[in-house]
Amino acid sequence: MTIYRTKGRSRHCYDAMLRVYSQFAAFLVLLAASCICISPSAAQTTGRRTSTKEPARVKSTPPSRENAVPDLSGIWERRDDAGSGSFGGVNERTPPASITAEARKINEEARARQQAGYVQSFASRYCQDLGMPFIMGQSPPIDIVQGKDEILIMSEQSSVARHIYTDGRGHPDPATYEPTTNGHSVGHWEGDTFAVDTIGFNELGAQNVPGGGLRTSTSHLVERFHLLDGGNRLSITFTWDDPKVYLKPHSYEIIYYKDPPETYVYENFCDAGDPAQGQSVIPPPQK
Questions:
Q1: How many domains does the chain have?
Q2: Are 256 and 229 in contact (CB under 8 A)?
Q3: Could you give the 3-state DSSP secondary structure of residue 76?
Q4: pLDDT of 247-256, one tens digit each?
Q5: At the N or C end, where does the chain have fewer CB atoms within 10 A?
Q6: Same structural domain for residues 33 and 83?
Q7: Residue 123: how many other CB atoms lie within 10 Å
Q8: Stretch 3-18: mean pLDDT
């Protein structure tokens, strides 16, 4: 110990420092004793565990059987001769729709343009959002992500994701809603069937509906999702209703097959300046 000396005060400083060190040593002894006597519960309160016994675990309550719903998540695709443009005639076997004279005229004009070699979908030609029902009926897969408050359906083709809200909300006020190619969708479970109601469409994108007719601003779509074959297949029934297009509701079914878990989707790159973008797999070649 170094003693700092000043005139006549060296002994006094030494005694004062000795008293301080003695008091500090006594404090350390008391602190050690309190640590030894502290209870395990108090130690845990301070963030330290003095026992090797595991604390009681909080038991989570699993969802009740009544509230459990099927999981639609996964990548799904059509496999009925996918890529042929008509799925080996499956599209042609779709029940024909009973359509109005106005809708029939639109179909006839579109057929004439196709036979003349002109592009049928300007949205596809110029890389715009294709929307419903096109993205649900073509060969590229759809990726379904199921959450608590909504279900997302994403297409590999040019389109924004479909948001199907399951939190109990209704459709927005048409006076303030901006219509889209996918419309506004809300869904709920009816047993093991997922029912989706969609309105709020615009008249852009790929509008053709399988079996005849087309999507318009007054279209109303109801879909019913149901898993088959132990969850390996997915049935979706589509029912369209539109006073401008259909004389009665038009329904058809599409079956999707679940891809393996390691499946991933391709990136869709669309160049409107590429002449090949105007071609079609269905003859005659479009221009």
A1: 2
A2: no
A3: strand
A4: 999 999 999 9
A5: N
A6: no
A7: 20
A8: 41
Which of the pair, 160 or 124, is modelled with greater confidence?
160
What was the pLDDT predicted at 67?
65
Contact 136, 254 (CB under 8 A): yes
Q: Is residue 216 part of a domain?
A: yes
pLDDT digits (tens, 9 = 90+) for 64-81: 445 689 999 999 998 865
- Nearest Cα neighbor of 215 from 283, 133, 153 is 133
Calculate the alpha carbon distances from 219 to 38, 151, 170, 213, 241 in Å: 73, 21, 17, 11, 6
Report DSSP state, residue 259. Answer: P
Whether residue 152 is found in the same domain as residue 100 = yes
Same domain (yes/no): 31, 129: no
Q: Which tokens sit at 49?
A: 């565990």
Q: Name the percent of the chain in helix, strand, coil, to the closest 5.
A: 25, 25, 55
Mean pLDDT of 93-120: 84
Q: Which CA distances in Å does 68 have to 72, 97, 166?
A: 13, 36, 14
* Full domain range(s) for residue 28: 10-45
The length of the chain is 287
Q: How far apart are CA 264 and CA 266, in angstroms?
A: 7
Whether pTM > 0.85 for this model: the answer is no
Q: What are phi and psi of 255, to 5 degrees?
A: -105, 130
* Nearest Cα to Cα of residue 215 among 194, 237, 241, 236: 241
